[in-house]
Amino acid sequence: MNILLLGSGGREHALAWKMAASPLADRLYCAPGNAGIAQEAECVTLDIVDHAAVIAFCRTNRIDLVVVGPEAPLCAGIVDDLEAAGIKAFGPGRIAAQLEGSKGFTKDLCRDNNIPTAAYERFRSAAPAKDYIRARGAPIVVKADGLAAGKGVVVAQSVAEAEAAVDMMFSGGLGAAGVEVVVEEFLDGEEASFFALCDGETALPLTTAQDHKRVFDGDKGPNTGGMGAYSPAPNIDDATSARVMKEIIQPTLRAMKSMGAPYKGVLYAGLMITRDGPKLIEYNARFGDPETQVLMLRLMSDLVPALLASRDGQLKSFDLRWYAEPALTVVMAAKGYPGDYKRGSVIEGLDEAAKVDGVQIFHAGTKAEGGKILANGGRVLDVSAIGKTVREAQARAYEAISHIRWPDGFCRHDIGWRAVEREASKH
Ligand code: AMP
Known about the structure:
- By secondary structure, the chain is an alpha+beta fold.
- The protein is 32% helix and 30% strand.
- The longest helix is centred in the middle third of the chain and has 21 residues, at 238-258.
- The termini are far apart.
- The relative contact order is 0.13.
- The chain binds adenosine monophosphate.
């Protein structure tokens, strides 16, 4: 098979690494890719916003399957356009991708189908949103309806902070994403990420993960796209997993199907595990980043047939096998991230770092120039490792990092702390 992967981050490097290992993959292309992905796939310059250009590339290069990494092209309907052109594509169509593209859409779907989630209201102007906030009191959560690259959620500790978030969103602070706002109940509990592979009708649970969103040690500082992750999530046991499937994932699939927009692709549920059980915080319509990096390390089976089965509606009799060992990834970011940062600094020591047992280094934002690897983004590397315990995976990842020479980069030093503490308390 000839496969085209769309995207350029650590998630796509992990997917490329796994797909390149498939005996089914003849040629693997990635647009636009990065310096790490270039070790697994042929990187091509293609503007993925230009669907006609992507279709033309697929025809010229006889692409059998397009795998879409990020959410923006999914919400822009690239899967619909490719399929209409007779090209198989992995991921949801435009309407199904609204599960990520519109928080209001997802909240209404939850309400209509009794899917456990935070109580909420949708607003198109500031005054009624503020009335609702004052009536409910803090803590309370304010969310831009649309895609806002991780910046659209304010967990407000006071009414004033929530009102300021409403003003920021309605005054255009997040562009079109904030034309509509959802205000919702604050959920108390511990978060986890749950992934399911869907084919429109059947959902196959993948595995779980937890991530660290804050930039600094101790889960402090501003939110980021994610500074590290590990899998499995220690707070999701088999019983909780069964509940998530029955109470959240399956009713969602049924609802999307009856709407005429069956959901295919990865459904990534951000969950709060509360005293009353798991509740949906949000959906993403694609693999997580950096969670995919740890998922791919733990996936024993071939990924390619699974993606095809999702696209073809053949998941009913499908099975995937996973390594029981946990995996962990530490993100190395450019100093200044998630604010302003510089590009172009040289990264050395990657080969030595990759020799540490159980370690895989995925590139999130790099480019190769003159035989050197240069930083080319905010999140730059995902130093990932598998181990017998989370503690061992953590030690291996940080040992690898100790070999990386990149003065302009930084990472958190406590990724996995919660899981490591849990392990310690069991012994
Ligand atoms: P989201 O983009 O919806 O995943 O929200 C980003 C982060 O905000 C989540 O990972 C949670 O940490 C937090 N968050 C979102 N909604 C809620 C909620 N209703 N209650 C508590 N925390 C929330």
